[in-house]
């Protein structure tokens, strides 16, 4: 649905986006993650034909962003980072205006506007000037204008920024719901948001793509060896000789024991998938009583820090 090839965008001597390539499949929700100044907004501006790339290409639903910008724009709903709304327009007038601009057929306009009012909870502010709205409500109006023409693709630059916690949950649910039929790229700094809403994550740092995968994959990749805590009731010599004979257990350390129950910290080679299940199986075979098993996992936050701070 979206193909980006070797995209580069400079501002003077600043390379904001540096040779980035990726693709987004139809129906996929892609989370764009990166620290301030990483190049997220710039990439989105290029994809939405807001500004041209310095080099490289991108196509949206088969249309080239440079050759067919109108076709691209028709297919995209864009929520910019700082929503350029008409501040002296009333919310309901603005929505009517956008519906007209987006060439929604007259017969459908009222129902599309009503749908956006419901979805973005705007009923209480319809008669207010946009300039007089709070930040969160401006954001909701921005979301409404992005979705009003029911585009196949949504590009949302920090969609939940400025919203209160209730609204954040609602918007995340909405994005998940929309993601069933639409292709979505969203940027965020909020890591739980990525796990909550995205099928795939791309981490961008200093204009470069540094990682891509499902939230789970990224966690696993960056994790290296895994650590497993187990508590076993059995003869200690039996436990230790068994662990010593298993290749994927790189280290085992008894961290506590009481009344015949031994707690171990095991370092397990990263080649071993699902080591919890293997240890469980082992306990069954040896007739051990396994009373605790838990793995220590890197959070997405750890992965993000590892990949974007040069601390790797
Ligand atoms: N209009 C501009 N003129 C000059 N430099 C710019 C301009 N817009 C962005 N930049 C620079 O390009 C780089 C990428 O900025 P961009 O806004 O794309 O980052 P971002 O990932 O969206 O960051 P944030 O999380 O803060 O929104 C930064 O170094 C920024 O200073
Ligand atoms: Mg930005």
Automatic annotation (TrEMBL):
<dbReference type="GO" id="GO:0016887">
    <property type="term" value="F:ATP hydrolysis activity"/>
</dbReference>
<feature type="domain" description="ABC transporter">
    <location>
        <begin position="2"/>
        <end position="231"/>
    </location>
</feature>
<keyword id="KW-0547">Nucleotide-binding</keyword>
<keyword id="KW-0813">Transport</keyword>
<comment type="similarity">
    <text>Belongs to the ABC transporter superfamily.</text>
</comment>
<dbReference type="InterPro" id="IPR027417">
    <property type="entry name" value="P-loop_NTPase"/>
</dbReference>
<dbReference type="InterPro" id="IPR003593">
    <property type="entry name" value="AAA+_ATPase"/>
</dbReference>
<protein>
    <submittedName>
        <fullName>ATP-binding cassette domain-containing protein</fullName>
    </submittedName>
</protein>
<dbReference type="InterPro" id="IPR003439">
    <property type="entry name" value="ABC_transporter-like_ATP-bd"/>
</dbReference>
<dbReference type="Pfam" id="PF00005">
    <property type="entry name" value="ABC_tran"/>
</dbReference>
<keyword id="KW-0067">ATP-binding</keyword>
<dbReference type="GO" id="GO:0005524">
    <property type="term" value="F:ATP binding"/>
</dbReference>
